[in-house]
Amino acid sequence: MTTPSLPPATLAAPVETGAPVQRVGTIELFFDLVFVFALTQLTSLVAHPHGLADYGKALLVFMTLMWIYDGYVWLGGNVEFGGERQRRLIFVAMGGFFVMALSIPTVFDGGGLPYALGLLTVTSIHALMFQKAQNSSAQAIWQIAPYNFGAALLVLAAAFVHPPSDWPLWVAAVATLLSSTFLGRERRFQLSPRHFVERHGLIIIIALGESIVAVGGGVGELALTGPLLGYGVLALMLSALLWWTYFHRDDARAEHIFLHANPKERSRMAITGYGYGHFAMVCGIILIAAGLKVGVAHPTGHPDGIGIWNLTFGVSLYLLGDVIYRRSLGIGPGWVRLILAAVLLLTIPVGLMYGALPHLLLCVLLLTSLLWVEAARDPLDN
């Protein structure tokens, strides 16, 4: 990977981190398989919602799931997973995540208790394994662990409360997690920049891969007509364009800046850009996957309106998260992307009137135009 051209202020020597892990290990990739399944479950939850409440439920579940999953990304840059004990603990954590994923469809019903117990399991292992870090992260975990356990206990309490009284407990759990970032509890953690950047790039790839799987799941045993195949190809093109917005130089620029940032700046980039920004991007991809899953089943004729809404808001939310990520890392303001996020909302009437296939084609054309405009403005592409 070539080093991108950056302002002279960013070309200082890399700042030492004290975090030993530099690249992603195979056990972490295996760990991601459970996360893929969890995203599939969330996609199914919002593909055919019964109302706005289902979106609220999915968001609350997503925030608790994504938070602790991202916590394992931070863990992976501080602790080697090469020993047998560490691997056993990771496999136990995988079991906890798998229970959480299985419980997602009924988490606000009979699945609330299994989800909460899985969350408590992965939270406990996360705190335990951080104690093996050979740097300040071993002590820093106790700045964040009370918030993690507090949120998990609130989710556990919600499992014993009848709806709708469980909603305030779930909201309180998410608020507890987010409050730790407002108080700067992450400051003493050490980060391995290359590992951290690569790991979050893999999260985006995993999410985009799930969107492709969702299209296949939407096809099922339907006859492979021309419109259906056309929709499938366009869906793949949409995922490829989203990949391009993230991995065409932006990830290299982000890694360079992240590597050369001082520890305080790096911590805030990690929370804002790789935390909030990536949360929004993955959430957007889940909505995209849900929209594509519905649209591919009815590419022509009168569309299922929820598929149009999910797809449009998903792409817009992804672009919004991407702008947060770009601004946090200083790799570009992203005004063109922000404008496109708003313009995409104007395509909803087109989809509702003419169908899912023309709507998807229009989204693909708009994203392609975005990349052309950015290429014309970026001297590195000329």
CA radius of gyration: 21 Å
CATH architectural name of the largest domain: Up-down Bundle
| Strand tally | 0
Question: What order do the helices and strands follow?
Answer: HHHHHHHHHHHHHH
Low-confidence stretches: 1-12
Work out the strand percent: under 5%
Largest sheet: none
| Morphology | globular
Coarse structural class: mainly alpha
The CATH topology label of the largest domain is: I/LWEQ domain
Number of domains in the coordinates?
2
- Estimated helix fraction: over 70%
Q: What do the pLDDT scores average to?
A: 88
Q: What is the C-level CATH assignment of the largest domain?
A: Mainly Alpha
Helical stretch tally: 14
First-to-last CA distance = 18 Å
Protein described:
The protein is mainly alpha-helical and 382 residues long. It has 2 domains: 22-182, no CATH class; 193-381, I/LWEQ domain, CATH 1.20.1410. It contains 14 helices and no strands. α4 runs antiparallel to α5.
